[in-house]
Design brief:
The structure holds two protein chains of two kinds. Chain A is about 80% helix and about 0% strand. Chain A is mainly alpha-helical. In chain A, a hairpin with a 4-residue loop joins strand 1 and strand 2 (about 90). In chain A, about 35% of the residues are buried. The two termini of chain B are about 30 Å apart. Classes of the chains: A mainly alpha, B mainly alpha.
């Protein structure tokens, strides 16, 4: 029962965090020069002071800060994040249209980075002076130091322009027709480069950590016991040691969610991936404040949910986590 | 010819200052030393480069998309016919200054919050660590994009925007160090002899908490440079200055015609950040006492 209890506490806490994001959002909007009335006036081609005041009264902008904040939070609770004057659409609708693309990119990149990272880490832990181990060290430095948008452009030049085997931009080819699987393969082909680019930042991080924890685990007593029992090296590594060295890596992956979403903004811009990142880019150029703040809110939501899922995954992998979490 | 090692008393007499000992450890990391040299060259280039190579980075000097080497332009020209070499040299200043200044801002915020939380504990620690968690949930790049978009893309605002979003790691490290050190005997002794809290925090504990903070700070400079590059790549930068990320961002539509306008500035960012992180590695060797015994 403690499991459900602590998890409920985490969910409750996550909701408080989200509300804090809303307060921050609203304060930023309030502090920024220019308001909705100015934006509307601008799109009408200018207005005098009386019209501006009328718009402000209309939108309740003449009310005290706390009243406005309360109304904003009430609206968000009803999934209303305001109206985008640039895209002429409700912000929530705009974001929900783009969210799946971002989720696809973020989740697939995280999984790729985790999987390849752990495989490389385990392999180089077993052969600490082998070529894979040096490769991991080198790649860790590259992943940390190379700007992700540059990595993306380099991959784009290599695999879309010089050796044109993968599509240059976007998420699907509108000219392609066919059943579900044809579209599936089409999206997958478009996903390859953005996914690898985004994963490249975190891959090295995960492989380095899993190498370190794996080496530590391989030196521990119970591994020696398992070996003494006569289990094969393979069985010892994959059945005994791996499970115990996985949880630090998962914890780290959970902490990286905010960085992954940040990286996704740049990667999406490079590959014109139709997600929240490109939307953020467009709305910032258009000075579309409600959309920008809506994206900030939703991306915080993605990070928070990601953290909760990590927590859940940790409990599944490692039963010692739990109780008081 | 074999010599006896000097007796232990002599060795103790010869013991060097902590600083020279740290340098000794740093010097053993050859990659870090090489990186320090490269970094020094980049810094010198950023300072005196514009005087040695006075071409205006905003001026159209030759036909657009002239490849590197053509007509005496070492790195070629970009889509507006501007001299890429001049842009790289002038961009170095912006990247380095913003990287450094943003790192200072975030270290200042992080150390203050971490120190207060670790020193006073209790309800203050709870509140400060919740605030830290809150900032960890916001995707850093998006948050600073929002700040820059709402409050204008001036260099001080960009610096502030990067600093505000990237202090959480420093705060956590500082707090952990303070929690450890505040229980040590010499801190107890200072406390018992009536040293005031402020002095205790910043004169007694902080100097001893510095090594991991310094290592983290080196890494912060690198990530702040990457951060600035990302923002200016997206066009969120002061239009009156050149920066490396901005060169990539404004030229990226033309990678078919002139891929070097993207690869070269990216290489500049990569080499700089790589050098900084290698120096950070060296600092870790030099300042981490756990590694000394190895």
């Amino acid at each position: 029962m403690t499991f459900i209890n602590t998890f409920a506490t985490r969910v409750f806490y996550a909701i408080i965090l989200l509300m804090a994001v809303l307060v921050l959002n609203f304060s930023l909007m309030h502090m920024a020069p220019g308001d909705v009335a100015d934006t509307i006036a601008q799109s009408m081609g200018g207005a005098d002071k009386e019209v501006l005041d009328a718009i402000r009264t209309d939108y309740g902008l003449d009310q005290p800060f706390l009243v406005q904040l309360g109304r904003y939070m009430g609206n968000v609770a009803q999934f209303d994040l305001g109206h985008s004057f640039f895209f002429n659409q409700p912000v929530t609708q705009l974001i929900l249209e783009r969210l799946p693309a971002t989720l696809l990119l973020v989740i697939s990149a995280q999984l790729l980075a985790l999987f390849v990272g752990v495989v490389l880490g385990v392999y180089s832990a077993r052969k600490p002076n082998g070529i894979v181990s040096h490769f991991v060290t080198f790649f860790a430095l590259f992943g940390y130091s190379a700007p992700v948008f540059w990595t993306g452009i380099l991959l784009l030049i290599s695999f879309s322009l010089m050796i044109p085997i993968l599509p240059v931009a976007g998420m699907r080819d509108v000219t392609i027709e066919g059943n579900f699987w044809v579209h599936f393969i089409d999206v997958a082909r478009h996903l390859v480069l953005p996914m690898i680019t985004l994963a490249s930042i975190f891959l090295a991080l995960y492989s380095r950590l899993s190498r370190a924890t794996m080496m530590e685990t391989l030196g521990s007593d119970y591994v020696r016991t398992a070996k003494a029992k006569g289990l094969s090296e393979r069985q010892v590594v994959y059945k005994h040691a791996l499970k115990n060295s996985l949880s630090p890596v998962i914890t780290l992956a959970g902490l990286q969610f905010s960085a992954v979403v940040s990286g996704a903004v740049l990667v999406e811009t490079v590959f014109s991936w139709p997600g929240l990142g490109t939307l953020a880019f467009q709305s910032i150029i258009a000075r579309d404040t409600p959309t920008i703040l809506g994206i900030l809110f939703f991306s915080a939501l993605v990070v928070i949910v990601g953290n909760l899922l990590t927590d859940l995954a940790l409990r599944l992998v490692d039963p010692r986590v739990g109780g008081k979490g | 010819m074999s010599q006896q090692p000097p007796p232990i008393e002599e060795q103790i007499e010869q013991a060097r200052s902590p600083l020279s000992e740290a340098w000794e450890m740093f010097r053993r990391n050859h990659a870090a030393v090489a990186a320090l040299v490269v970094l020094g060259l980049i810094v010198i280039g950023a300072i005196i480069g514009p005087f040695l190579y006075p071409t205006d980075p905003f001026e159209m000097v030759w036909a657009p998309f002239s490849p590197p080497g053509a007509e005496g332009f070492l790195l070629g020209t970009d889509y507006l016919g501007r001299d890429l070499m001049a842009m790289i040299i002038n961009g170095a200043r912006v990247s380095l200054i913003i990287g450094l200044a943003a790192a200072v801002v975030s270290i200042f915020i992080g150390v203050t919050i971490g120190a207060l939380a670790g020193f006073y504990r209790g309800i203050l620690e709870e509140i400060l660590m919740r605030i830290t968690e809150f900032f960890q949930v916001l995707p850093t790049l998006l948050f600073s994009m929002v700040i820059v978009a709402l409050f204008g893309a001036s260099l001080p605002m960009i610096t502030l925007a990067i600093g505000i979003v990237s202090w959480t790691a420093v705060a956590r490290i500082t707090r952990a160090e303070f929690l450890r050190i505040r229980e040590l005997e010499y801190v107890m002794a200072s406390r018992a002899s009536g040293v005031q809290n402020m002095k205790l925090m910043f004169r007694v504990i902080l100097p001893n908490a510095l090594p991991p903070i310094i290592v983290q700070s080196a890494l912060m400079v690198g990530s702040a440079i990457l951060f600035e590059a990302g923002l200016s790549f997206l066009g969120l930068t002061d239009p009156n200055v050149v920066s490396w990320g901005q060169i990539i961002g404004s030229n990226r539509q033309y990678i078919l015609d002139a891929s070097y306008t993207v690869t070269i500035p990216g290489l500049a960012i990569f080499v700089t950040v790589l050098a900084i992180s290698l120096v950070g590695d060296g600092l870790n060797d030099a300042l981490n006492p756990k590694l000394r015994s190895r």
